What we know:
The complex is a heterodimer of chains A (296) and B (195).
Chain A lengths: L3 E3 L2 H11 L3 E5 L2 H10 L3 E4 L4 H7 L8 H10 L4 E6 L3 H10 L3 E5 L20 E5 L2 H9 L4 E4 L9 H18 L6 H8 L3 H10 L5 E4 L6 H9 L5 E3 L1 H4 L4 H13 L4 H8 L26
Parallel strand pairs in A: 2-3, 2-9, 3-4, 4-5, 5-6, 6-7, 7-8
Helix pairs in contact in A: 2-4, 2-12, 10-12, 12-13
Chain B lengths: L1 E5 L5 H10 L3 E5 L10 E4 L4 H10 L2 H9 L6 E4 L1 H6 E5 L9 E6 L10 E5 L9 E5 L4 E5 L4 E6 L2 E7 L2 E4 L10 H15 L2
Parallel strand pairs in B: 1-2, 1-3, 3-4, 4-12, 5-6
Antiparallel strand pairs in B: 6-9, 7-8, 10-11, 11-12
Amino acid sequence: MARSEQGTFKVKAGLAEMLKGGVIMDVTTAEQAVIAEKAGAVAVMALERVPADIRKAGGVARMADPQKVKEIMQAVSIPVMAKVRIGHFVEAQVLEALEVDYIDESEVLTPADDQFHIDKWGFKVPFVCGARDLGEALRRIAEGAAMIRTKGEPGTGNVVEAVRHLRAVQSQIRRLVVTPDAELADLAKELRAPLALVQEVKVLGRLPVVNFSAGGVASPSDAALMMQLGADGIFVGSGIFKSADPAAMAHAVVRATLHYQDAKVIAEVSEGIGESMAGLEMTSLTPADRMQERGY
Amino acid sequence: MRVGILAIQGDVREHERMFHRLGIATKLVRSKEHLQDLSGLVIPGGESTTIGMLMQEYGMTEEVLKYARTGQFPVWGTCAGLILMATEVVGPSPTRLALMDITADRNAWGRQVSSFEAEVPIAALGPPDFPAVFIRAPRIRRMGDTVVPLAKCQDDVVMAESGPFLVTSFHPELTEDVRVHRYFIEKIEEARANR
Lengths: 296, 195
């Protein structure tokens, strides 16, 4: 047999391509994972507590118990992701040893390093990272992230921050595309991103990896809103299992994401699914409550 | 000629890009009405459970079968698409089309850490070897008499055809090599000539 190679950037970024147009749901138990899979989720995120509960509990939020991650992996056939603290490369080594399918280096957990993210090139398992603007996205890709999610404000059930950050990334890309080549080095400096990636974005007219929207999606319309704004897919954290009827909400969000351009379908699937999670107004959060600012 | 790409979920854009590079028009298929006036259909990579469930729910499974049963409507499944085209599936089995007499074993090379790239010789395409990308790929455990193997990786058949139907367990759409896409277009031309 000819050469074969595992853990290349192509297979890492490739898995994210396969998830496009889909919904990835936060789950904390094997039962929840099964509900998510039955509703049509393309992957689940295994964690100890959903962001809304992390917010309530306070203290240090860490990687989930490996036993819990394993139970969830055994319960479903779709890919299983799990979160590590920013910069905590040993938590990442542990999740790689468990063979999770994707690692989320996430601001939802308490950062373990206040200067550096994980060097993700050394891992065979792919990473997804959050970003609030183009520079942050490209810095994460430079560190080896194979998928980006534009951040919202996790656990709030309020989509406003997700909208703001997706719009920010897109407007910066639009500006980059019309920037003359001779000025790209300067723009790269301004974005604090490698020139080669800036040049690649100019050629592609989009990020070089898949970009999902995350944080604050709490209804089928929220999901379709993010899709219409140009997200490649949706992460739903607390929005499913903090709603009144998780199975119905999960079912509706998946269908609204597929038919995001068809308001009739969104209306149909939104009917009688019970209440979304209780939300938080951004002004009610103190600066210390804001998870989105974590990351460098 | 217009090739449909099932656009429920998955790497739709990548298939679209390959056909456009070959100068072939495409149409994204999100509902059964979109299946009209197509020369063939591609089922992309994605999550087979999700794609199968939503195809069924929106009446597309029956509609695709209606066209496929004419014998003149080529269908090509990549990875998740292969699973959806298999008559039998090992383990949890998604709702599917069952167009090809094979047994598919989902994620049989292991989880994502075992996903790999390999150079695969494909006699029907000639040299050089094809840069195949396998992502949580299925394995073909059994093939019926009507199925013709087209390529092997290690000891596994990774590309096969049966009449107008084609399956690959890898993702030609993630590469810059258009030869498998061209091969599918030739199958469409053949089907049209036989009409």
